[in-house]
């Protein structure tokens, strides 16, 4: 059965679009048929991050308006067989798509694709409700900051109310050196606060920004950066393959959080944030 996974967070700028694009490619590299749906109709950045913006002819809005067939709107990624993008409108729009409109469209997509990843907008209003409407599971993205964790907590409550299950956590932009110095929550701290399972964590990695600016997705590069390795692992974990979920990559410009480290920041952080 097709897995329809919404990538969401509450807070903006935490890496939803980056993760949707790269996770989609990583899953397709593993031989899966993957459709990426840009449900962030206002910001619509997914096409840019994938470097597919020039190839868009029709969009999700054209499909809904009956101006083209779903198949015509899908942009197939020539670099990565098995990957297709269903783009949002060509121009930024505040136009709303309702859950009732998106559901049949995603049902059609599910006939052909094994994974559907939905990039959701920030916030928890109508756009969020549409993005989660057809989801069978969710990946919640949080950064190790208390505001992001709070927003993620809110979103998890809403996802649970919709009976979306499983809900798994990705902690992004982790800086191991700061974690070790007890200046940043560890992925495990965040997980403990949110009470959902941690599928993986991604470190702060400047190559994410470089790849975004070039429209050249991180996980397609030859020399894998730490973030690309982490996303590949998350794809494997999502597919059921067991992998180490901790931060275990080497960072030349940062200190490594060693799994065998004697420092256990978890207790410290929980006591720092007793009000959460
Ligand atoms: N692991 C990371 N390391 C460094 N920069 C990152 C990382 N993840 C995301 N970013 C940057 O953060 C910004 C917001 O990411 P984006 O995916 O657009 O977030 P969202 O979709 O949640 O708003 C972008 O500039 C992106 O390049
Ligand atoms: Mg985004």
Automatic annotation (TrEMBL):
<comment type="function">
    <text>ATPase required for the correct placement of the division site. Cell division inhibitors MinC and MinD act in concert to form an inhibitor capable of blocking formation of the polar Z ring septums. Rapidly oscillates between the poles of the cell to destabilize FtsZ filaments that have formed before they mature into polar Z rings.</text>
</comment>
<keyword id="KW-0717">Septation</keyword>
<protein>
    <recommendedName>
        <fullName>Septum site-determining protein MinD</fullName>
    </recommendedName>
</protein>
<comment type="similarity">
    <text>Belongs to the ParA family. MinD subfamily.</text>
</comment>
<keyword id="KW-0131">Cell cycle</keyword>
<dbReference type="InterPro" id="IPR050625">
    <property type="entry name" value="ParA/MinD_ATPase"/>
</dbReference>
<keyword id="KW-0547">Nucleotide-binding</keyword>
<dbReference type="Pfam" id="PF01656">
    <property type="entry name" value="CbiA"/>
</dbReference>
<dbReference type="InterPro" id="IPR010224">
    <property type="entry name" value="MinD_archaea"/>
</dbReference>
<dbReference type="InterPro" id="IPR027417">
    <property type="entry name" value="P-loop_NTPase"/>
</dbReference>
<dbReference type="InterPro" id="IPR010223">
    <property type="entry name" value="MinD"/>
</dbReference>
<dbReference type="GO" id="GO:0000917">
    <property type="term" value="P:division septum assembly"/>
</dbReference>
<keyword id="KW-0067">ATP-binding</keyword>
<dbReference type="GO" id="GO:0051782">
    <property type="term" value="P:negative regulation of cell division"/>
</dbReference>
<dbReference type="InterPro" id="IPR002586">
    <property type="entry name" value="CobQ/CobB/MinD/ParA_Nub-bd_dom"/>
</dbReference>
<dbReference type="GO" id="GO:0005829">
    <property type="term" value="C:cytosol"/>
</dbReference>
<feature type="domain" description="CobQ/CobB/MinD/ParA nucleotide binding">
    <location>
        <begin position="5"/>
        <end position="218"/>
    </location>
</feature>
<keyword id="KW-0132">Cell division</keyword>
<dbReference type="InterPro" id="IPR025501">
    <property type="entry name" value="MinD_FleN"/>
</dbReference>
<dbReference type="GO" id="GO:0016887">
    <property type="term" value="F:ATP hydrolysis activity"/>
</dbReference>
<dbReference type="GO" id="GO:0005524">
    <property type="term" value="F:ATP binding"/>
</dbReference>
<feature type="binding site">
    <location>
        <begin position="11"/>
        <end position="18"/>
    </location>
    <ligand>
        <name>ATP</name>
    </ligand>
</feature>
<dbReference type="GO" id="GO:0009898">
    <property type="term" value="C:cytoplasmic side of plasma membrane"/>
</dbReference>
């Amino acid at each position: 059965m097709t897995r329809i996974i919404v990538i969401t967070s509450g807070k903006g700028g935490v890496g939803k679009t980056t993760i949707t694009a790269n996770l989609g490619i990583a899953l397709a590299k593993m031989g899966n048929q993957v459709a990426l749906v840009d449900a962030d109709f206002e910001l619509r950045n997914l096409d840019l991050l994938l470097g597919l913006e020039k190839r868009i002819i029709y969009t999700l809005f054209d499909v809904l308006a009956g101006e083209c067939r779903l198949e015509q709107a899908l942009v197939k990624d020539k670099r990565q067989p098995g990957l297709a993008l269903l783009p949002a409108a060509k121009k930024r729009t505040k136009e709303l798509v309702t859950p009732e409109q998106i559901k049949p469209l995603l049902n059609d997509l599910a006939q052909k694709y094994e994974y559907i990843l939905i990039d959701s907008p920030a916030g928890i209003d109508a756009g969020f409700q549409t993005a989660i409407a057809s989801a069978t599971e969710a990946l919640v993205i949080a950064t190790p900051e208390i505001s992001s964790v709070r927003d993620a907590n809110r979103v998890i409550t809403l996802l649970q109310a919709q009976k979306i299950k499983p809900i798994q956590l990705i902690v992004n932009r982790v800086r191991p050196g700061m974690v070790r110095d007890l200046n940043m929550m560890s992925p495990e701290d965040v997980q403990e606060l949110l009470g959902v399972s941690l599928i993986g964590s991604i470190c702060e990695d400047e190559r994410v920004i470089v790849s975004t600016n070039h429209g050249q997705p991180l996980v397609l590069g030859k020399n894998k950066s730490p973030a690309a390795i982490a996303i590949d692992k998350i794809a494997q974990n999502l597919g059921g393959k067991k992998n180490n979920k901790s931060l275990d990559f080497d960072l030349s410009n940062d200190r490594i959080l060693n799994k065998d480290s004697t420092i256990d920041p978890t207790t410290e952080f929980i006591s720092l944030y007793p009000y959460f």
